[in-house]
Design goal:
131 residues, Cytidine Deaminase, domain 2, 4 helices, binds tetrahydrodeoxyuridine, alpha+beta, single chain, 5-stranded mixed β-sheet
């Protein structure tokens, strides 16, 4: 649990960097890698709305581009006050690099929710399906 609280703190820190002039909806994410490192990310919007990158993918892409191969857990927080769950695209990207771990969420009441990827993204399409 201590590790998850640490991950949530990092996600909140990253949320401060969210670039959201269009939605004003700020999201922060932090991933824990199998090697024990933490990488953070925020959402980064764009005048061409579709070019927006979610916080979860920002954090994940930072980790993978630094040589990480697998993440074990991901924490997500937002400015909404409520639990914020990854969008469909992020669920697919998370599934590529996370096998067994947990997703950790916190709302503005300090309540923490921990769920398995399989709970919010069952029957996913993976590289095993390609062979
Ligand atoms: N967003 C995230 O960064 N992560 C989520 O889990 C949900 C949505 C961002 C995308 C966009 O910048 C804003 O939130 C509103 O959709």
């Amino acid at each position: 649990m201590d590790q998850y609280k640490q991950l949530l703190i990092k996600a909140k820190e990253a949320m401060a960097y969210a670039y959201t002039p269009y939605s004003n909806f700020n999201v922060g994410a932090a991933v824990l890698t199998k090697s024990g490192k933490i990488y953070t990310g925020c959402n980064i919007e764009n005048a061409s709305y579709g070019a927006t990158n979610c916080a979860e993918r920002t954090a994940l892409f930072k980790a993978i581009s630094e040589g990480e191969k697998e993440i074990t857990d991901i924490a997500v927080v937002s400015s909404s006050g409520d639990f914020t769950y990854p969008c469909g695209i992020c669920r697919q990207v998370i599934a590529e690099f996370m096998k067994e771990g947990n997703l950790i969420f916190e709302n503005n009441k300090g309540e923490i929710k921990i769920i398995k990827l399989n709970e919010i993204f069952p029957y996913s399409f993976t590289k095993e399906d390609l062979i």
